[in-house]
């Protein structure tokens, strides 16, 4: 196991910079997930760590040594790809053993390491099969086994679950998390799936436009997004974002919101948080769906639950929950209700809004102001 450090890493293609001075420190044994939409630079960043892409400037350190000029095989890393990259003519055993053979491992040691890794991944019954005889989840476990058997310093995962169906993705997330807890390996994991990021990681780096927008724990990223992009990208359903105005009523900072009939409603902020300097300012108010619910389903520990009477436009039953949509500030806003709440489209309903969970952003800069 080892640390990984990116020091002001930049990457340019034909004079156009696509990675803009990224700096990240990954602790020994940490599971860090780099997440972002397609084209944000996350896979390019991972490939630079692996040595599959050159670095225009900056430094990549693994286990305290700068590896910018080292070939991938000299970096003591193992990578798991999106497409598995298995040899179709080789058995599972031979696929897993291939890297060991290249490294000069032979005989009893090779056999013992492959069999131990196969047992850990529940692949022992399939060691003599070819990849075409395996399911997608089994093939992905073989790809992971090929990396694990080498005992590298760092594991790199490049969207390893994106080719699997929804149920298999959930199952494989569990397997990967179990492996990390058991082995304590250092993992850098790239995905576009924010649920993977939130469930797997010890910390998350959210990328957009070649920049790291925010680096923090899953709770920090989810509860305290630094800008509108992070707020809207992380979470499913995503954070509600709608126009409001900061005002003061009887000395209390409130968010004034336009309802669908043109009338105004006021939601008091949980704390003033130096909002006096922003009196009269237009903001984008951000509230997660679970913080907008029915009165009986509201968080009883919160001291900032406020009633908002608003017209229901859509209800979406989702098994254990019902998503209820209303219109605030000219935007659709989704609340997460209990499944058995009687609520119908067209009626004015008393929503319970937890303003302890509200955040405010500047509409122009899109950065957090409160």
How is this structure best summarized?
With 370 residues, this protein is of the alpha+beta class. Helices cover 23% and strands 35% of the residues.
Keywords:
8 helices, alpha+beta, 5-stranded antiparallel beta sheet, elongated, 20 strands, 6-stranded mixed beta sheet, 370 residues, 23% helix
Protein architecture, described:
With 370 residues, this protein is α+β, with helices and mostly antiparallel strands. It has helices spanning 42-50, 92-102, 107-120, 136-148, 166-183, 194-200, 218-223, 228-233; strands at 4-13, 16-26, 31-35, 57-62, 65-66, 77-80, 154-158, 186-191, 203-208, 211-216, 240-249, 252-258, 264-268, 282-287, 292-293, 305-318, 321-328, 331-338, 348-354, 359-361. Strands 6-7-8-3-9-10 form a six-stranded mixed beta sheet, sandwiched between helices. A five-stranded antiparallel beta sheet has the order 13-12-11-14-20.
């Amino acid at each position: 196991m080892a640390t990984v450090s990116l020091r002001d890493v930049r990457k340019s293609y034909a004079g156009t910079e696509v990675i803009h001075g990224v700096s990240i420190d990954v602790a020994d044994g940490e599971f860090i997930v780099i997440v972002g939409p397609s084209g944000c630079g996350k896979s390019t960043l991972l490939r630079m760590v692996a040595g599959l892409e050159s670095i225009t400037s900056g430094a990549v350190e693994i286990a305290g040594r700068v590896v910018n000029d080292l070939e991938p095989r000299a970096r003591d890393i193992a990578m798991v790809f999106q497409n598995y990259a298995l040899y179709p003519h080789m058995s599972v055993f031979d696929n897993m053993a291939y890297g060991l053979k290249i490294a000069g491992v032979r005989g009893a040691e090779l056999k013992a390491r492959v069999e131990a890794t196969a047992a850990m991944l529940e692949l022992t019954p399939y060691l003599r099969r070819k990849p075409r005889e395996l399911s997608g989840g089994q093939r992905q476990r073989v790809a992971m086994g090929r990396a694990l058997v080498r005992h590298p310093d760092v594991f790199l995962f490049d969207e390893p679950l994106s080719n699997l169906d929804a149920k298999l993705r959930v199952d494989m997330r569990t397997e990967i998390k179990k492996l990390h807890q058991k082995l304590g390996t250092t993992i850098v994991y790239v995905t576009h799936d924010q649920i993977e990021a939130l469930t797997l990681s010890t910390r998350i780096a959210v990328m957009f436009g070649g920049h790291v927008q925010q680096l923090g724990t899953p709770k920090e990223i989810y509860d305290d997004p630094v800008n509108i992009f992070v707020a809207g990208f992380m979470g499913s359903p995503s954070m509600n974002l709608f126009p409001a105005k900061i005002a003061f009523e009887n000395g209390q900072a409130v968010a004034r919101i336009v309802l669908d009939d043109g009338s105004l409603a006021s939601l008091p902020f949980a704390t003033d948080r130096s909002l006096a300097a922003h009196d009269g300012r237009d903001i984008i108010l951000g509230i997660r769906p679970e913080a907008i619910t029915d009165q009986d389903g509201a968080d009883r520990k919160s001291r900032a639950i406020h009633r908002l009477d608003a017209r229901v436009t859509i209800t979406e039953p989702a098994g254990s929950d019902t998503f209820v949509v209303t219109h605030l500030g000219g935007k659709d806003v989704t609340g997460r209700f209990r499944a058995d709440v009687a609520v119908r489209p067209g009626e004015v309903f008393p929503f319970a809004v937890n303003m302890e969970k509200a955040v405010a952003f500047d509409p122009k800069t899109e950065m957090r102001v409160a």
